[in-house]
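Chain and conformation:
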Amino acid sequence: MQFNRKDLLGLEDLSSESIKLILDTADNFKEVLSRKIKKVPALRGVTIANVFYEPSTRTRMSFELAEKRLSADVINFSKATSSVKKGETLRDTLENIQAMKVDIVVMRHGSSGAHKFLSEFLEASIVNAGDGQHAHPTQALLDMMTLRERWGTFTSKRVTIIGDILHSRVARSNIWGLTKMGAKVTVCGPPTMMPAAVEKLGVGGVKVEYDLRRAIREADAINILRIQLERQDATLFPSMREYFEVFGISNDVLKSAPEHCIVMHPGPMNRGVEIAQEVADGKQAVILPQVTNGVAVRMAVLFLIAGGKVEENDLQ
């Protein structure tokens, strides 16, 4: 199967077959990451620009490492040292980058829909590394890869997403990806952090629960989100301490979930706010494996966007 798409803007318009193709390709590339020489020539001659208008540690480093593992030529854009400071528009900035014969643009931007806007006139492919509160497709894909490694299937599995659902692009992308693959999703958090009509998101909708222990009672995995204070215009809960008391995941709270329940977090973590220290470092946590899988997933996405089809010689 070929990935016949110019861009990766989100998971809403991807089929389950396309998602499976990305995950299968990521499995192949993860094997490359375990070698002594962690590099293949799959994207030799392809130029990729990382354009990040928002701060990022894991996503930016993960994409750059994925690009270098694929032997692509990489250029990095920094808003702080760019002509954006002189008033240059987003469109002008990206058209100038494209004029340098860049093939793929990996972009993070604070405005929802920025990538969709650019995709309508840029010939270069665009990979969404996060846009506002809308989508973060590669984060959802790496979360799904981590779950599939442990489950083998998504059918009838139950995932509870906990925290600031309102401001979370990670939550939205996970909901779309997981429900398309057959998982059941529950969202849990303060009513002030729950989007309107959230129950209609995804394929077949999601369950909304405000009682934390009830929300995780049958969960095969829980995905814990941080409180995104930088996206809030007003305080949506009384205090960090009270948030942890009601919605924080501690070892005591985790006893309400099945023993096999996996604990996930997209990072960065606020220890003692949404997740306790002992849970973050506990045996049920797969937080660092998520980061490892992020490189493999982003290798797969870039390779497929560039028109690749996994052949034996691509992995040599």
